[in-house]
Specification:
The complex is a heterodimer. Chain A is 0% helix and 41% strand. By secondary structure, chain A is mainly β. Chain B has two domains: 177 residues, 2-enoyl-CoA Hydratase, Chain A, domain 1; 197 residues, 2-enoyl-CoA Hydratase, Chain A, domain 1 (Alpha-Beta Complex), CATH 3.90.226.10. In chain B, strand 3, helix 4 and strand 4 form a beta-alpha-beta unit. The chains are: A mainly beta, B alpha/beta.
Chain lengths: 130, 517
């Protein structure tokens, strides 16, 4: 039994409602609203055995995302960095583009210097993974 | 007279056998591996008890190669319709337990029947792909089955949303049915999709490769762009389906599920004022803008890991379902390139098919320069953006945040491509080209003849920038609707959407346009 108050034309009525068939199979209920935040899982590109035009891609090689000019080197060889740490800054289309560490590790070698022109896919930094 | 108990008992028994795919041990094996069965996948998609199955007792008719005695429950595919948040959705799910989910004639016919039903009823369709491929014993009938499914994929395209979940093998021709659908979701492990596998590639070409490199979810999500979402597992894939459908209409003749707020909130959002860096060379993450613009920062990003210089996805703005297309200055300077043009154009066309308004956020320095881009056909690919925007008749609202240069400005839904309203921030730079390049052409002689050419050039650059690197020239020429404070963006866009929702536009009748491909 459920007690409900119904108001009709401003007049309140108290009513008792008996729910029949409670034991039977329930009608498909409207479930709670979909979970608020759903997103695609993060993945990184699997290694490829194909060689890029501008150089070999070995594990730990950080390639240039685009053709441009090196503005600054933001790490030193031997430095330990976290994943997504800024390694260097490039300029193309009058915009700076940052290059980030794909994973935590140590910077083994920086292959370019400020002012260098780089090709897309050219290896900029060699890293060893932590 | 009451029904004969024996008949009911027989029905129950047959049903129980079908429910475990005729192989309870194999069901348990899958559970031990942490996998859902084909039937559990559909069941968990829908509200409990709401799945109405079609053709549970269907059987193959093949007699070749000793098939006559083989029982294949439901012929290896579960099909039917169920309720998702109160809305009917059709689904089919290939049953790997039954003959490796292989596709035979009856299997294909069940899928086709369901697709025909979805078209008639005007309900979306979800396809769980988990199949070893063609049922070789059934020969050319199996091949024909694929053809019939592809044909229906095309018939349904633009009529009801089609979503594919790749949760097992999906090889060779089988991969083309998902490819013809609107969105592909793939589980991180256990699923692969390819036309020719590593062995075939090696035999035919000598190239050595791995399944990870060519067929994994990671490869398709980051490199090939063949899939739109990566799921951690079956349950996550189903969550993504549900989330995606929460933004989509049941079919092309109805509106998407808008939930307009009873009152428009016109208050400023100060966060917008903090986003554009003082240094025009410095990039910013456009996700910050999207999060401030959409309701509850709830944004379902499509193609999150591919062609990242453009960001596309679904959200609601004060309850109105919206497709967002935004340049991402953090990646490749936010330029339009071959892949980002393909990605955005496909998304825009989807939104147009299903009556979803499009909000475009612009910070684009141009099309990506480079030999690979030119030789790869950036003209043909970039043209898709122009085509998709110009052909779209849904409400189109554009916000120019910063750079809007040249052809890329036009390609990002400028007024001339049919934007209903264009807002610009005071930081907007709308021009044919950047200052440095422009003065070299316009003032070539003046610079050359000046006593100090360097100084003269710098002055011309400064002058050009003052005049053109602002939204006021565009506003003076009636190219934009209004120049607004960034903080006012959410209110302005929400109002624009509400005011434009009743838009109707008729175009000359034709079979279809000829989008460059």
């Amino acid at each position: 039994m459920k007690k409900l108050r119904v108001t009709v034309d401003g007049k309140a009525y108290d009513v008792l409602v008996e729910i029949l068939d409670e034991g039977g199979a329930p009608a498909p209920a409207r479930p709670a609203a979909h979970p608020a935040h759903v997103e695609s899982a993060h993945v990184s590109a699997p290694p490829t055995s194909a060689r890029s035009a501008a150089g070999a891609a070995a594990p730990g090689d950080v390639p240039s995302p685009l053709a441009g000019k090196v503005v600054s080197i933001d790490v030193k060889a031997g430095q330990q960095v976290e994943a997504n740490a800024q390694l260097l800054t490039l300029e193309a289309m009058k915009m700076n583009t940052y290059v980030f560490a794909p994973a935590a590790g140590t910077v083994k070698e920086v292959l370019v210097a400020a002012g260098d022109a780089v090709e897309e896919g050219q290896v900029l930094v060699k890293m060893s993974q932590a | 007279m009451p029904i004969d108990e024996k008949l009911l008992h027989d029905l129950d028994e047959r049903r129980a056998n079908a429910l475990v795919s005729g192989a309870p041990a194999k069901v348990e094996e899958r559970h031990n591996k942490g996998l859902l069965t084909a039937r559990e996948r559909v069941d968990s998609l829908f509200q409990p008890g709401s799945f109405q199955e079609f053709g549970m007792f269907a059987e193959h008719q093949c007699t070749n190669f000793g098939m006559a005695d083989k029982k294949l429950p439901a012929d290896g595919v579960i099909t039917g319709v169920g309720l998702m948040e109160g809305r009917p959705v059709a689904a089919f799910s290939q049953d790997f337990i039954v003959a490796g989910g292989s596709l035979g004639r009856v299997h294909a016919q069940k899928i086709c029947d369901l697709m025909d039903y979805a078209q008639r009823a005007g309900v979306p369709i979800v396809a769980f792909n988990d199949s070893g491929g063609a049922r070789i014993q059934e020969g050319v009938l199996s091949l024909a089955g694929y053809g019939q499914v592809f044909f229906r994929n095309v018939l349904l395209s633009g009529v009801v949303p089609q979503i594919a979940v790749i949760c097992g093998p999906c090889a060779g021709g089988a991969a083309y049915s998902p490819a013809l659908m609107d969105f592909l979701i793939m589980t991180k492990s256990g699923a692969n999709m390819f036309i020719c596998g590593p062995e075939v590639i090696k035999a035919a070409t000598g190239q050595v490769t791995t399944m990870d490199e060519i067929g994994s979810a990671a490869a398709h999500a980051t490199v090939s762009g063949n899939i739109h979402f990566v799921a951690n597992d079956d349950a996550h894939a189903i969550e993504i389906v549900r989330k995606l459908l929460s933004f989509l209409p049941a079919n092309n003749l109805v509106d998407p599920p808008h939930r307009p707020t009873p009152e428009l909130d016109l208050s400023d959002v100060p966060a917008f004022d903090e986003i554009i860096p003082a240094d025009p060379k410095k990039p910013f993450d456009v996700h910050q803008v999207i999060d401030a613009l959409v309701d509850d920062a709830d944004f379902l990003e499509v193609h999150m890991e591919w062609a990242k210089s453009i960001v596309v996805g679904f959200a609601r703005i004060q309850g109105i379902v919206t497709g967002i297309v935004a340049n991402q200055p953090m990646v490749r300077s936010g330029t339009l390139d071959i892949d980002s043009s393909d990605k955005a154009a496909r998304f825009i066309r989807f939104c147009n098919l299903y009556n979803i308004p499009i909000v475009t956020l612009v910070d684009v320095p141009g099309f990506m320069p480079g030999v690979a881009q030119e030789r790869g056909g950036i003209i043909r690919h970039g043209a898709k953006m122009l085509f998709a925007y110009a052909a779209a008749t849904v409400p189109k609202i554009t916000v120019i945040m910063r750079k809007a240069y040249g052809g890329a400005y036009l390609a990002m839904c400028s007024r001339d491509l049919g934007a209903d309203m264009v807002f610009a921030w005071p930081t907007a730079e709308i021009a044919v080209m950047g200052a440095e390049g422009a003065v070299k052409i316009v003032f070539r002689r003046e610079i050359k003849e000046a006593p100090d050419p360097k100084k003269a050039e710098a002055e011309f650059v400064k002058k050009y920038r003052e005049e053109f690197a602002s939204p006021f020239q565009a506003a003076a020429n009636a190219q934009i609707t209004d120049i607004i404070r960034p903080a006012h963006t959410r209110a302005a866009v929400a109002m624009a959407l509400r005011n434009t929702l009743s838009k109707r536009e008729t175009r000359p009748p034709k079979k279809h346009g000829n989008i460059p491909m």
